[in-house]
Structures are given as structure tokens and as C-alpha cells.
# Entry
Amino acid sequence: MVEDRAAALAAIADEVRACRLCRLYEGTTNAVPGAGSPDAQIMFIGEGPVFHEDRLGLPFVGRSGDYLNYLLNLIGLKREQVFIANVVKHRPPDNRDPLPDEILACKPYLDRQIAVINPLVIATLGRFSMARYFPNGKITQIHGQPKFEDGRAYYPLFHPAAVLRNPDLRRGMEEDFKRLLEVLEQVKQQRAAQTKPDAAPAEPKPPEKPTQLRLF
Ligand code: SF4
# Structure
């Protein structure tokens, strides 16, 4: 039930706010556990909070957030219909990249959020979330190419901040976004095909008439 999912996500968020499992909480204003619909069919995973996210405790609220809103709007979606999280829940100092041990320490929170929401599509935003599902992938080569696995699609996208820094990526990003709903539809069809009952068993054949044994 959606209420149970919301309660489970709220419990994870409370744990995140109290978490001291890695150094990243030091010097932060707020943890950024993630936000959105507990029932989301599409989940976005970014890297980590930056300045505005840290101030507000919400993911993607600065310029990157505005651009993400624009992209969602392009395909007729609103923030409230998706769930947005990050691989680390506290802001790395000076917006540096999260370190491997920090990503590892924070991983159980993200794993649990995914398990609760059970989205049909996980869209990764940037290198660090992409590496969870495409360990050897290069974003410039694999962006916009979904991987279908275990009844779900993993869909690698550029990070919105990278697109804002490099407008040459903008067209590709927007084309990838426009394909997102097709990918979602493909997953739905795959799941429906898997749950379809097998073809009705054939009517049992009537027993054959016993053949008269030839005695002579
Ligand atoms: S980044 Fe994750 S693991 Fe590190 S303190 Fe914050 S919630 Fe805990």
C-alpha cells in the first residue's frame, strides 16, 4: 500500500538525518534523503547534494533542479510523480566527488529506497549512479541506452549539471528524456507478458477405443 511505502521511506529519511556512518555529515546543514512519490514508476538517482540542496534538505533544487523540472515537463511529468534520490545523502565539501568509501557507506539507504519504491525504470543521472548498474560504462557512449533486467529498465542519463556546463550535451539529453516514456512502456509490456497465464491446456483426448485383440 502507498501509505506503507510512504512510512517506510520516512523511516529511512529519519535514519539518514541521524546518520554518522561516514565523514560527509560534518559541516552540512541538512541531510538530503530524497523526495517524491512512494509509488513512482520512474526513479532518478543523482550523485550528491550541492549548496542549495544542503540548505533545503531537498534534491535538485538549484539550477540543475530547474533544468530537471524542465526535462520532466518536456515529457508531461511533474516532480511529484517521480522519486529523486542521490548516491550520497550529505553534501560532499566544496561539491567534490563522493569517495568510494562514502558511496559504500551510504549504499544501504539507497538500496532500501529502491526496494520500497520498486520502480519500473531507474534513470541514473551522471557517473556515480551509472556505475551502480553499468560498472564499465562511459556515459558519453551509453547514455540513452536502456538495460532491461529483472523486470526493470536501467536508463543512463547525463547529469543535468554536466549539461548546463556543456550545452553541446543538451540535445542528446533532451532526446534521451523523450525516450524515457517509451522505455517505461516497454517494461510494462515485458511485465505484462511475464504475468500472462500460459495458454489454456489442451482438452484431454478421449481415451482411444480399446482395439479388439486379435486372437487369431
Ligand atoms: S552520506 Fe550517507 S553514509 Fe555518509 S553520513 Fe550521510 S547518510 Fe550517512
In short: Residues 2-191 form a domain with the Uracil-DNA Glycosylase, subunit E fold (CATH 3.40.470.10). The CA atoms of residues 18 and 30 lie 10 Å apart.
